[in-house]
Amino acid sequence: MTVGRSTVLGAAIAALLGSLAVWIVSAVSPLMRDEVGLTEERLGLAVSVYFAVSALVSWLGGGLSDRIGARRTLTLGAACSVAAVLAIALLAHSWIHIVLLLGVAGVGSAVIQPATNHAIVRGVRLSRHGLALGLKQASVPAATLLAGVSVPLLAVTFGWRWAFVLPAVVGLGFLPLRRHLPDGRRPKARLGDASADGGGVGLPLLVLAVAGGVGVGAISAATAFLVPYLVASGSTESTAGWILALASLAGVTMRVLSGWRADTLGTSSIPAIVTLLAVGSLGAAGLATEGGLVVLALAAMLMVGAGWGWNGLLVLTIVRAFPHTPGLATGISQVGIRGGGAIGPSVFGLVAGGAGYTAGWTMVGAALAVAAVLMWVGGRLLPDPSAAPVPGAPDHA
Description:
This protein is an all-alpha fold. The chain has one domain: Growth Hormone, Chain: A (Up-down Bundle). The protein has 14 helices and no strands. It has helices at residues 3-36, 40-68, 70-91, 95-123, 129-137, 139-158, 165-174, 202-232, 237-265, 270-288, 293-307, 311-321, 326-355, 357-381. Helix 8 (202-232) packs antiparallel against helix 9 (237-265). The longest helix has 34 residues, at 3-36. The chain is globular and about 50 Å long. It starts with a helix and ends in a 16-residue tail after the last helix.
């Protein structure tokens, strides 16, 4: 296996590990309700705590990756993530335990995400960054896919705690790949050195972070509540889990294809991001219609496939604009993105619990449309990425 491929695989597995805890909790929440009292409002709080902790730690996590290297940072994040999921499986007996342990999982995810971007920028050929980041970012919908599959295959059959075996297995898979990850330490790098032209750093990164936060807040809430909504609409837990898996597969496919296409075109990814967010809003509108099972499944695939298919393109846009400190730049953007993830599920839980799911899906569709507009504005403010090469990027695939 070449350095580039092993780097992508290691980064993808680490990112998958950092995302599994929150989505497995969301998927199996109907089965946890009686035992730990995890209502819609409490589920929203738990998911929000995960993202809130991630938002608070992301800036530090990104800087940590630049200072001590991607390999060490990813190892720390992976250990934190495994500890959190094992504690949920073995020790959680109240919804409060779930909230607290998802906060621990949020720390692991916040450390992992910018470090995976750093590893890919340093370990993969520049002309393959789009595909590599698309494959790595596909780990997030892949996590929801595995979470969905875990419902009928593990949680329904053996009990909800057995669904958390998956993250432990993924953690074991990360160990042999750790040594293939690049180091890439730049202890004295500053964000002021990050942009290709040396200026205009703050405003475009801020706008993109806010746009990403609005989009991720909407889609993370939608994904977290998709299974509970389908169950409340009359589907079985198993059917709802399979629909989540199909929708997640659409998200995986879109992230990989969009990254590959970005490498092929070599142009700005902002128009594609705007288009995907707009299409995702249409999928949310489809869920708001409360149609039959087939309509709901197709709407979910459209919402998650397009509405969550743009994240890899956003990371690509940021690392191209800020090539000298990819860990720190993407870590800063994650503050806004994870902040949106913290707000979205709690708001959705309150809206769905009070006004019903139709109001919740309408809110999701509107938020995705707003995110599309903000992405367009942020894209126009970005520095020219062609002014500076990526330091340390290899010439091989």
